[in-house]
Amino acid sequence: MQTSQQSSARVGRQVELSDQRVVDIRPLERRDREGLADAIGRLSPQTRYLRFANAKPHMSSRELDFLVDVGRREHRALLAVDPATGWGVAVVRYVQLQTEPAVAEIAATVSDDWQGLGLGTAMVVQLIEQARDDGFSALRASVLASNKRSIAMLLHTGFAPLPSRGTLREYELPLQPRRRNTLNGYPA
User: What number is the average pLDDT over the span 47-52?
Assistant: First the structure.
């Protein structure tokens, strides 16, 4: 099993998007609080609505504290930074469910100008690997039925719909433990 320092999602990486722009993806940290608040403020009302399921104009101090209280198995988050501006342009996170400790709920937010380029998908793939390394058995997502881009991203990364009705749709990805290469019981 990898330690959190060795885990793929914990190491900063660069990702090239479909329009050839490059972003730096790294773990979100407490020091990102102000930048996160600014990034949420730059989201269009439609993107904020699709992410938070309401017309949230800004985040409270308490909500921001929760969003940056990360870096442990129960709550991890990745931040994509535009190296040209230094601005955060996307965040993906998971939070362990209190009622099902082996399951974590995932959420993703991508700035309007960066949507549709594969950024959310690339970050979700990294977060899936982190959740697997952390020993979760499944990831779940709740998405507005009208959020077609997020639904497509979830399906593309292997999530399957759960029976659900109403305005929210539920998706789940069972996580299989990483298989170790072994030869006669010893690492290969």
Answer: 88
What's phi and psi for 16, nearest 5 deg? -95, 130
Buried b (16+ CB within 10 A) or exposed e, 89-99: bbbbbbbbeee
Per DSSP, the chain holds a count of helices (H) and strands (E) of: 5, 10
- Let me know: does 40 contact 50? Beta carbons within 8 Å: no
The closest of 88, 160, 122, 112 to 8, measured between CA atoms, is 122
The DSSP code for 72 is B
Q: In DSSP terms, which residues pair with 174 in a beta bridge?
A: 138
pLDDT in tens, 64-120: 999 999 989 999 999 999 999 999 999 999 999 999 999 999 999 999 999 999 999
Type of residue at 76:
R
Q: Which domains does the chain have, with CATH numbers?
A: 8-177 (3.40.630.30)
Give 14's strand partners: 24
Structure tokens at 14: 């660069």
Query: Does the predicted model carry a pTM greater than 0.90?
Result: no
